[in-house]
UniProtKB/TrEMBL annotation:
CDD domains assigned: MnmA_TRMU-like
Reactions listed under catalytic activity: S-sulfanyl-L-cysteinyl-[protein] + uridine(34) in tRNA + AH2 + ATP = 2-thiouridine(34) in tRNA + L-cysteinyl-[protein] + A + AMP + diphosphate + H(+)
Domain of life of the organism encoding this protein: Bacteria
Residue ranges of every copy of the tRNA-specific 2-thiouridylase MnmA-like central domain listed in the record: 205-272
One Pfam entry name: tRNA_Me_trans_M
Native organism taxonomy: Bacteria, Candidatus Daviesiibacteriota
Name the UniProt record assigns to this protein: tRNA-uridine 2-sulfurtransferase
GO MF assignments: ATP binding; tRNA binding; tRNA-uridine 2-sulfurtransferase activity
Alphabetical UniProt keywords: ATP-binding, Disulfide bond, Nucleotide-binding, RNA-binding, Transferase, tRNA processing, tRNA-binding
InterPro entries on file: MnmA-like, MnmA-like_central, MnmA-like_central_sf, Rossmann-like_a/b/a_fold
The EC number(s) this enzyme carries: 2.8.1.13
Gene3D superfamilies reported for this sequence: Adenine nucleotide alpha hydrolases-like domains, HUPs
Length: 299
């Protein structure tokens, strides 16, 4: 009996090729386009980015002759991802919204929709692999080490993995583009998306300033000398290179590249050269450890 699979189709080359491969494997493929964020606009057309992506998804669905469903999850995305992201940054943390998005939005809502359609599986164009063992399902990195996305899937659960397929896990990006070109896909050379999940590439400081007010503080070197001022420690992350280009005011002449080594409360940044021992931590504290396959022993 033919199995039905619900595929997240973004309009990009990866999900398009994933749909093609699944069809060739005999699946009944149903595509879904997720509208999660409509605030980001193309600087040239001033059209919401998601509109351009939706048009390409519709075009690819027509080419592949598969049905396409549009899911509007913007309310949930802003409530559960964006709000939490702002809250974390305001506390001086650097969250990864892509990980949270996959955990809370993309995979749960895909599976919920799949069940309503009586589909057997869900699929995405992620570069990752799933291996079934006697005890559990394992999440493995994709064959293409330069495009591996298993890190962004690190909060998925056994239940998630049990009904998910990653068709591109054994392929390299170059192979995916080649397949798309051979099949005359209009997006075969389309640039890969970057930045925040469903939002795209944005100036992070400008994005955060929409909700988080500036709070000026000092930038000190490793000898506690004042070398500049910053608009708020929440806008920066450990390891980031400092400079005027990211909204800082460097008052002392610096002859070498300096990086954020520490964000000291209440509002001070310590910046050091890349060879400084302050950038080489010996102890890392892990909070809220998530085990994808908890039944397997930790060695």
């Amino acid at each position: 009996m033919q199995k039905t699979i619900l595929l997240a189709l973004s309009g990009g080359v990866d999900s398009s090729v994933a749909a093609l491969l699944l069809k060739k494997q005999g699946y009944n493929v149903i595509a879904v386009f997720m509208k999660n964020f409509s605030d980001t606009k193309n600087p040239l057309t001033m059209e919401c980015n998601y509109v351009e992506e939706k048009k390409m998804a519709q075009k690819m669905a027509a080419i592949l002759n598969i049905p396409l469903i549009i899911m509007d999850l913007e309310k949930e995305y802003k409530r559960d991802i964006i709000k939490l992201m702002y809250n974390s940054y305001s506390k001086g943390l650097t969250p990864n919204p892509d990980i949270l998005c996959n955990k809370i939005i993309k995979f749960p809502f895909l599976w919920k929709k799949a069940k309503s359609l009586k589909a057997d599986f869900i699929a995405t164009g992620h570069y990752a692999r799933i291996k079934k063992t006697k005890l559990s399902y394992e999440l493995l990195e994709g064959k293409d080490k330069t495009k591996d996305q298993s890190y962004f899937l690190s909060q998925l659960t056994q239940d998630d993995l049990s009904h998910t397929i990653f068709p591109l896990g054994e392929l390299k990006k170059s192979e995916v583009r080649k397949i798309a070109k051979e099949n005359k896909f209009p997006n075969h050379s389309k640039k890969s998306t970057s930045g925040i999940c469903f939002i795209g590439k944005v100036n992070m400081k400008s994005f955060l300033e929409k909700k988080i007010k500036n709070k000026k503080g000092a930038i000190l070197d490793e000898n506690n000398n004042l070398i500049g001022r910053h608009p708020g420690i929440m806008y920066y992350t450990i390891g980031q290179r400092i400079g005027n280009r990211i909204g800082m005011e460097i008052t002392n002449k610096i002859n070498k590249k300096l990086y954020v080594a520490e964000k000291k409360k209440p509002n001070t940044i310590i910046a050091v050269p890349k060879d400084s021992p302050l950038l080489k931590k010996q102890i890392i504290k892990i909070k809220k450890l998530h085990l994808i396959n908890p039944k397997e022993a930790i060695s």
